[in-house]
Fold this sequence. Notes:
By secondary structure, the chain is of the alpha+beta class. It has two domains: 2-48 and 284-424, no CATH class; 63-261, no CATH class. Helix content is 48%, strand content 18%. The strands form two sheets. It has a six-stranded mixed barrel with strand order 4-5-10-7-9-8. A four-stranded antiparallel sheet has the order 11-3-2-13. Helix 2 packs across helix 11 (330-362).
Amino acid sequence: MYKIYLKQAWALLKENKLLSGVSIFGTALAICMIMVIVIVWQMRTANYSPEDYRDRMMYVSDTRASYKENESYNDCYFLASRVVKDCFYPLRSAEKVGMAYHGVQRLAAVADHTVEFKCDVTFTDAAFWNIFNFRFLSGKPYGEEEVQSGIMDAVVSESVARRLYGTTEVVGRTVEISYVPYTIRAVVRDVSLLAESAYGDVWLPYTTDNSLYDNGSDRLVGGFRCYILASSSADFDAIHSEAEANIARLNESQSTHLLKIGGGPDTHLGDLAREDAFSEPNVRELVMKYVIIVLVLLLIPAINMSGITQSRMRKRMAEIGVRKAFGATRSELLTQVLYENLLQTLLGGVLGLFFSYASVLLLSDWLLDTGTASMGIGRTFVNAEMMFNPLIFLYAFLACLALNLLSAGIPAWRASRMRIISALNENVH
């Protein structure tokens, strides 16, 4: 039976090639717009290297320090390193806690300065390398003892290594960062600007630059982001409660200032939704924005295509009347129309998925723009792991089914309810 439906659907497509082409192209554009939104959402929220543990991550970034006597005055920025050490390093509920100082542009050069260029430098602690899953081409990262000793070692990206020496075999060689020599100890695969928390061209121990950290000072705000890796998402509440208690203890010891983190630490979605340090991020609102956009992009083309389906149904009223006269049930007629329309929708869906991939690749800098992208020198590239995710294909298929049901469901339902005489006379009520 279903083979007959497919043959009939194919015959209908060839019967009016212009109308079929318009329908398929309209479906393709609708699926393309929906899938672009889905792919962008997936790339921002799913686990991708080196941020392989987004579903278990918590973040502390936007913070504010206010006077105890006058809380209307606020100093807003990231965290001071001592706050990370005092409030977050001791978290017993967390698996790992690390910190990093992003957004620093420095000049990278070989020793004789025959090659030099600007690069994005990220200063980190040792735990950073256990929280993010970098792909090491050679060497290994620096450890806790090396960080504490202030070792002048650097981890560089693949592209930086090639620009400096024309190869990735550079472990043991020297790179100058703003005229300060460092020994390259490891090379990692390039990191896209999409991985905001792990991104960098060169990674250095934060102890190699005294201007960045505040050992022994009373500052509460600084330039560090804190990254917390939980054993599972079930530990988020415990981590949150423990962090709040630690911050409360810190504030009690302060003579003039109070530290507030606006409801943090945040989950990955919370970090995306956060706007400032004054209020908690509204994750529900962020998700609803994406849901509403997808629904609008789904409903508008569905309404337009239902008109095309309805016009086709008018031409087939006599056929439907004959089938009903010979005992075809409403469910059989409804199934046939939906099944026939599904072929058209799937053809449009495949074309739309291709369009969506092309759009994301060509417009990645715009569609996948991040806060880091506005400051960084690097690029927002996507790889096969990000693009060809089984979930994306599943979402595309579900979008096709939904569009098929919305565009063909009402015309098919009306046709199945037609009286035999009315259908034979080709009168639509």
